[in-house]
């Protein structure tokens, strides 16, 4: 009798191995970038822009077959035609096991890199050095604002990402840019409220997923985003970084399920975090409120979680409040949220008085349109939106930061501080007028204008006095 031949177990493809796609192309695999519950994401050696995700299971495994079917369904989603920065499958891997090929832009790194750099510096006793070296507050706010906008657009199509985590978000390696791309798109699905998929990355799964009560949805995406955002800004997990978990590691799972209070719960201090960056240094009051709504009210009631559009508006408003701690004045090179003393809370360096201008947004309601309510005090409506301006040009858009249309609106003009002058560059085709305190005259501005510093109040009108329009008020 011949001995029975035993088939060798199929190895998961790794560095140096080759896979073949359905177009006949062979790809030699590079280093592993990420690993999830369904597959492994690796680079390819021939093209740095191409990534391959291969199944954790052999091709004949029912889980691998189901996953392949899911990828084929993802192909039909309206992602590319809506110009969303999501790395969609370019080809399917057919040998030695299921998977797909995706393409990314050059110069991107996992968002996880920023988190790791900041956390490691804290662990090594180096304080904020890793936080500042990885781009400081400005880079974090800009990336989160962009990611929130992308997610809001995706959710607007009724589609959930399904497995949002720092490993699946790639961002610009350069600190000067804020590009964001999402990978691991095989979980994309129409799921506004619920789905049959119960997938998540440890630490980022919503409570209903961990408890097995519901599947992925736009609401589970919101939870994952909020956890990432809080970590990125404060270097803390909103639940597992608390004192209760520090004292007893067995409480970590209940914490992730939302059974313990979040670290900034306004009424229950039992799980406070003793470390991390103070929230008031990195979060506006609006952002702090959104985090509380998500992690306190949104634990049991997913519908209480702030929508992605709310997050986008709040982060765009926070970006507009940034002040650079200039290294020319012995600063740390990071940015900080505007304060009256212009003092950087990260290094206690004060910026020179007059180096930063703060504009406050209002709406001017034309008396002709107010009718019998045309009292002068009713014509100026404060909105609460602000914009800081320093030596680098800042674009003022048709819609102010913190509003739904800001990111997509046209640039009306650019402003920057040039010594004792405020430089104003009006974009062609836009109507802008300047009004000075004590005068009712609106002076039309065209091209570039230099406004000398005189310490008086001014108003920039983005329209004419006979129509309701936006205005920016400032003292210069």
From TrEMBL:
Keyword check for Electron transport: no
Domain Protein kinase: 27-319
Basic and acidic residues compositional bias, start-end: 7-23
Short name of any one Pfam family annotated for the protein: Pkinase
Top-level taxon of origin: Bacteria
Cross-referenced InterPro entries: Kinase-like_dom_sf, Prot_kinase_dom, Ser/Thr_Kinases-Pseudokinases
Disordered: region residues: 1-23
GO MF annotations, alphabetized: DNA binding; kinase activity
Coiled-coil blocks: none
Keyword vocabulary terms for this entry: DNA-binding, Kinase, Transferase
Protein name as catalogued: DNA-binding helix-hairpin-helix protein with protein kinase domain
């Amino acid at each position: 009798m011949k001995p029975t031949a035993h088939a060798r177990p199929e190895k998961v493809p790794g560095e140096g191995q080759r896979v073949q796609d359905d177009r006949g192309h062979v790809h030699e695999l590079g280093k592993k970038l990420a690993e999830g519950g369904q597959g492994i994401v690796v680079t390819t050696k021939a093209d740095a822009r191409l990534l391959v995700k291969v199944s954790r299971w052999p091709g004949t495994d029912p889980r691998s077959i189901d996953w392949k079917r899911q990828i084929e369904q993802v192909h039909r989603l309206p992602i590319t035609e809506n110009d969303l920065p999501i790395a969609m499958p370019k080809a399917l891997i057919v040998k030695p096991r299921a998977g797909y090929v995706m393409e990314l832009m050059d110069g991107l790194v996992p968002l996880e890199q920023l988190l790791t750099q900041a956390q490691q510096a804290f662990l090594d006793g180096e304080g904020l050095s890793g936080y500042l070296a990885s781009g400081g507050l400005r880079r974090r706010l800009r990336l989160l604002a962009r990611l929130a906008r992308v997610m809001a657009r995706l959710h607007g199509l009724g589609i959930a990402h399904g497995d949002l985590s720092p490993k699946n978000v790639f961002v610009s390696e350069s600190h000067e840019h804020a590009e964001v791309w999402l990978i691991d798109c095989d979980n994309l699905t129409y799921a506004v409220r619920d789905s049959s998929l119960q997938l998540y990355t440890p630490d980022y799964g919503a409570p209903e997923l961990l408890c097995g009560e519901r599947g992925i949805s736009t609401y589970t995406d919101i939870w994952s985003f909020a956890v990432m955002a809080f970590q990125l800004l404060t270097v803390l997990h909103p639940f597992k970084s608390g004192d209760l978990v520090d004292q007893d590691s067995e409480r970590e799972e209940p914490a992730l399920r939302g059974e313990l209070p979040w670290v900034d719960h306004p009424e229950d201090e039992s799980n406070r975090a003793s470390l991390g960056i103070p929230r008031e240094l990195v979060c506006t009051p609006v952002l702090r409120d959104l985090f509380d709504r998500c992690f306190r009210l949104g634990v049991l009631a997913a519908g209480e979680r702030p929508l992605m559009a709310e997050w986008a508006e709040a982060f765009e408003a926070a970006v507009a409040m940034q002040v650079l701690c200039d290294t020319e004045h012995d600063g740390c090179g990071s940015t900080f949220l505007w304060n009256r003393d212009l003092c950087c809370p990260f290094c206690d360096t004060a910026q020179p008085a007059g180096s930063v201008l703060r504009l406050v947004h209002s709406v001017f309601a034309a008396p002709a349109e107010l009718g019998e309510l045309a009292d002068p005090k009713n014509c100026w409506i404060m909105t609460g939106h602000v914009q800081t301006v320093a030596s680098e040009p800042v674009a003022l858009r048709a819609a102010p930061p913190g509003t739904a249309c800001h990111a997509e609106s046209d640039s009306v003009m650019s402003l920057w501080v040039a010594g004792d002058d405020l430089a104003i560059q009006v974009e062609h085709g836009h109507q802008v007028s300047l009004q000075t305190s004590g005068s009712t005259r609106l002076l039309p501005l065209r091209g570039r204008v230099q406004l000398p510093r005189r310490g008086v109040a001014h108003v920039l009108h983005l329209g004419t006095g006979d129509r309701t329009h936006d205005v920016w008020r400032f003292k210069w």
